[in-house]
Amino acid sequence: MSNTIKKAFEIVKLIEKNQGKYTLTDIVKILGINKTTAFRNLKTLEELNILERINNLYYLGISLFEMGSKVYLKQIIIEKIHPILRELSEEVNETVNLAKIHNGMVLYLDKIESKRSLQIQSSIGDTLPLYCTSLGKSILSILPENEMREIIKNISFEKTTHKTISNPKKLIEQINEIKLKGHSIDDEEFEEGLICISVPLYLKHHNFYGSFSLSGPSIRFDQATLLKLSKKLKKYKDIIIEKLKH
Amino acid sequence: MSNTIKKAFEIVKLIEKNQGKYTLTDIVKILGINKTTAFRNLKTLEELNILERINNLYYLGISLFEMGSKVYLKQIIIEKIHPILRELSEEVNETVNLAKIHNGMVLYLDKIESKRSLQIQSSIGDTLPLYCTSLGKSILSILPENEMREIIKNISFEKTTHKTISNPKKLIEQINEIKLKGHSIDDEEFEEGLICISVPLYLKHHNFYGSFSLSGPSIRFDQATLLKLSKKLKKYKDIIIEKLKH
DNA sequence: AAACATTGTTTCATATAGTGAAACCATGAG
DNA sequence: CTCATGGTTTCACTATATGAAACAATGTTT
Question: pTM of this prediction?
């Protein structure tokens, strides 16, 4: 079924990974496709503003921005939650992230940066593994049991810090704890010096399995602070669920 | 050149206009394409998460959100300007919009809603005509003369309120005024009861022709207020230009 | 400045891959 | 139970995307 579309989309996905890095010939080499085909597809994608070409290097185009702004998720869910998360961020003066599960990964949906926060780089639209982020672990804790097992089965664990969870048993252990506590913590498991604390967020009516978090440098996030923050998170979680009830 | 891609994209563009309204058969009728082709294209688009199907009705898919979040414009320009606009919004307690020109239209890039503002519906990603918004008029005032003339030549004026500008001469007159004053006003020219005030924003290094605005109900925007707001806008404009200088 | 390398673009013959009419299901209405 | 509607599958066909090769436009090396 429409291979042409898929091929074109493969190109776009490649550009998404590395904007402004690839030239026609690069793309041909990387994807192993024919030059003429690539050439013509790039041309049409450019015409459609799906890609943009500057000095023969390709970038994601403005059409994607236009359409991306209009997906249901953005207009109905993210934009309704945003002001609430903003309040949270202002109240505790830390960076807030919102995420959902997508293809067995954490997809970042929204972010409110605290003014003081040293910038930790996670961008809206990025995807990260479930097992090494507090957001991901929170989400895992609210998934239907069989779905969770299925996802964990397909994870290939890779350590990014010495604290990263590296096997299914440990992960499932933690998930069970999270179910009891109602929140999850990423204690430098993904990035040295970075701590996150998340609560799961399930919106039944929208079939939304997600979570949101507070994150910052480990210096600021001692045990006492974490306890306080977890309470705040749960408070705001209730506010969100109330607002998105229908 | 790759007609298949274009056809597929036509479908996506149709869905963008009316999410959750069209079924396969509708799409076939509206676009005058073959049922089988539409069927298969819809299927691949769904597979690629470009479209989402719920009860045989189509919505924009999550891939578009992912990729849309990563366009240069968003990551480099909008996200840098955002906190500044947020400050502006908080300082004057009114709704702020950011826009740029795209295909002879105003493309809304960002929005910060004031808490008190009665919701005026303009969404990020929307496009509106240049001539009936203050944002558009501001942009026109900074375009190269020939480009501006060319664009105005192609406008088909349509009145949405009795105050809407309805001919090129009047528009060019106003643009000349804007060039002198440094800001533009939309006095219920697009929507009854809605006033906007904008300043143009040209970012040389990014080849960015845009503008940003404050908007709200006409009751609040008397002459004296407008004067104050125009000063604020210009102040923030300088801040933005300074920050995006390189 | 000439020869070479590299990369984007065009041509054209070919067959693959998308197309569309028609038949087929599944569902819901009358 | 019949009909109507809308989604799905089949299959023969040819239009359409494909890819090798030639070409043009760069910039680089000698």
Answer: 0.92
